[in-house]
């Protein structure tokens, strides 16, 4: 593995910066940037999968922190509902990262494809999905339990593999916490910060992060995330819904091609 950026062929950092910029833009709107940034890192000569996962988490954390701050300033998050998801996601992401260092990520790809197809069909059949917040959230204690369950499942997945987590978070917060799509997009970024930091709590002591590359990609991801968050707040829930359809469709195609070795 290259120890410094100077030792890399020039096309490696340039290509990765472009991929990370686009990933940050897409990820801040509706998620799914991991399927742009992570495969690009896996193409770096000499990179092991765990090194790509760890470096990707640092870059993604820069973007999600930026977009979550931008969202929080404009769209006030409901911390009573969101806090249990954040706490559970952080803990579960650490556990997923521990397992990620031991299992081949490819065994999960067929499952993710099936789930994403279901997400796409559900979104297309519900044109009013997330158009407005709903009041029938039940008791606060029940909402907390649902939030904990959502955080545990998606936090563990993000620590284990990651790509598509943002999409699942947006849909999960919309359905489980009954938020509108704009608030769900903002909440997803906040939870994604927790999942990234939870995984890094394991990867950093493991010394799996390529720090020069992580800092470079983090800066690019940060710029993309800021632009994407501003665009989302300007265009609203309808824009988020159509981006959800487009990104999920692209993820399905990407994963199916991966399954067939393309």
Instruction: Please write the string of helix (H) and strand (E) elements.
Output: HHHHHHHHH
- The gyration radius over C-alpha positions equals 17 Å
Structure summary, number of beta strands: 0
Ranges with pLDDT <50 over ≥5 residues?
Answer: none
Distance between the termini: 25 Å
The portion of residues assigned to helices is over 70%
Count the DSSP helices: 9
Q: Give the biggest beta sheet.
A: none
Q: Averaged pLDDT, please? A: 82
Overall geometric form? globular
The SS-based structural class is mainly alpha
> Which range does the strand content fall in?
under 5%
Task: Explain how this protein is built.
With 262 residues, this protein is mainly alpha-helical. The chain is 76% helix and 0% strand. It has 9 helices and no strands. Helix 1 (11-29) crosses helix 3, helix 2 runs antiparallel to helix 3 (49-74) and helix 6 (140-160) crosses helix 8 (181-203). The longest helix is centred in the C-terminal third of the chain and has 49 residues, at 211-259. The two termini are 25 Å apart.
Offer a few descriptive terms.
single chain, 262 residues, mainly alpha, 76% helix
Please outline what is shown here.
The protein contains nine helices and no strands. By secondary structure, the protein is mainly α.
Explain the layout of strands and helices.
Layout: H1 11-29, H2 34-42, H3 49-74, H4 79-100, H5 109-125, H6 140-160, H7 165-176, H8 181-203, H9 211-259
